[in-house]
Amino acid sequence: MSYPPDIRNQVRRAYLLKGPCQPCHHKFPQQVDGTRKQRFIASWFDEFSNWLEYSIEKDAAYCLYCFLFTAGYSERGHDTFVFEGFTNWQKKKRLREHVGDHNSDHNKCRLACEDLMNQAQHIEYRCRLNASIICLCYLLMQGLAFRANDESENSLNQGNFLELLKVLASCNEEINNVVLKNAPNNLRLTSPDIQKDIINAAATETTKVIITDLRDDFFSILVDECRDVSIKEQMGVVISYVNGSGCVIERFIGLVHVHSTSAASLKKDIEFLFSTYGLSISSLRGQGYDGASNMRGEFNGLKSLILKENSSAYYIHCFAYQLQFILVAIAKKHSSISSFFSTVTRLVNVIGGSCKCRDML
Ligand SMILES: [Zn+2]
Known about the structure:
With 361 residues, this protein is of the alpha/beta class. The chain is built from 13 helices and 9 strands. Residues 36-129 form the TTF-type domain.
């Protein structure tokens, strides 16, 4: 109680982490009381291992639980095991009496200690989770890969995520105490599954901000198809809208795995994405697709299906693609333009292949 109130729990935790002071190999001195000789018995530490303490200096026994919490719980207000220390070695039964029934002062203090340690674990867990979140948010923002080929303990490079966590831990003792080697093995919060959970949470939160910014207003969609490394057909969906300050905003809101490329199934996929974010086809004012895509026929069907449901969802052809169309058409008819483009192509190839040529250019 001599510590300021705001750090008392911290001090109590430090005491509890150290555990009770039990010098079992000490040569306990003998007390002579008339003809009786008595002393503290080391085996009492085994019997009352969680709380019994012995002070060599005072040759007296104390209770760790009550010592830490008695000010708040003891109704007697004065307890030998907290203040002057227990020394009446003949009366070992006093130790058991001190523990008492489940509602005793001692047991109230024990519960208070256990609560405090649980709370401490909770704080540690939060700190560990926070460290993982900080690392993942950084990697997400920079668009960096999370993992490495070899993430074993003795790998020289355990990948961006683990290496960044190490850096973070080396700069902050509080984090260092609870992450990586200092975390419980089953709760390190660094496994790929945990990484994915946190990333998904980040994606959900980010999309929430985008949808809030859209404010139930009109919007258009831009869809492109792509194939990922596992040869899965994916649709990337971007929404574009005018925000509260009158700026045109374009935001990527998700990848949809295309199960079947029929127009009806594409529309179902889009509807599913919309329903996930509370968007409605009735608020759609524009749609744009990549006209050069392998799926241009399917996109054409999708466009018609959406237009059937909402005639205000105007279709706008991709302008970059139209520009290319026009250039190709013109080059076909005018040989000078055609030769201009082939010269430019050759020039770019020749110059681009050599650093020296680039510098000269
Ligand atoms: Zn006690």
